[in-house]
Design brief:
The chain has six helices and six strands. By secondary structure, the chain is of the alpha/beta class. A six-stranded mixed β-sheet has the order 1-4-3-2-5-6. The radius of gyration is 19 Å and the shape is globular. The chain starts with a helix and ends with a helix.
Length: about 190
């Protein structure tokens, strides 16, 4: 029995390696051949997130608090990203704030947590686009909750106008129609 597992592992590993090589070759000629690109995931504390959100340059910033282990969070991501993509020309950006480091005893640190989130997004082939930033939140959740008057549990989405004011929020999972409504109101 152990020999079969070893053989199956070798065949599985060889298949993944061959697929990765084929993807790299295809990407040299057709950049989108291997699926959408996921931006680097950066770990930030509360102050770092504040600086990122204050950086400006967008008419509206959609901030989504989520985690890879949160089924409703993951389920709403395609609708959020589609709604934001439809408003990209109006200067809408998205900041996905992963709470993956906030799980006690997860064994993750900033590096392994960022790698986990990036891999998760790559595997699901989410269309993130160039106006999406992904951060791994590494601070006390209550700071974020207090600053933006958030309910606590995730998923939670809030929208900031160009001046950094909260102009909309959604507690819990939202639909594409609700994301369209939130983003549309902020981008005006």
């Amino acid at each position: 029995m152990p020999a079969r597992r070893t053989g199956a592992f070798v065949r599985s590993h060889a298949s993944r390696t061959a697929a990765a090589i084929a993807c790299a070759i295809a990407a040299a000629f057709f950049p989108s051949a291997c699926g959408p690109k996921v931006p680097a995931v950066v770990a930030v504390d509360f102050d770092g997130l504040q600086q990122l959100l204050a950086a400006g340059g967008a008419r509206a910033t959609v901030v989504n608090c989520w985690a890879t282990w949160c089924a409703p969070c993951v389920a709403e991501l395609p609708d959020l990203l589609a709604a934001a993509a439809a408003q990209r020309e109006q200067g809408v950006r998205v900041v996905l704030v992963s709470y993956d480091l906030l799980v006690p005893d997860s064994g993750l640190d900033r590096v392994s947590g960022a790698a986990k989130v990036k891999r998760f997004l790559e595997e699901r082939r989410f269309e993130l686009g160039d106006r999406v930033t992904v951060v791994l939140y590494d601070d006390v959740a209550s700071k974020l909750d207090d600053r933006f008057d958030l309910p606590g549990p995730i998923p939670t989405t809030f929208v900031l106008d160009a001046a950094g004011n909260v102009v909309g929020r959604e507690k819990g999972a939202a639909s594409r129609a609700r994301f369209d409504e939130l983003i549309g109101a902020a981008a005006k």
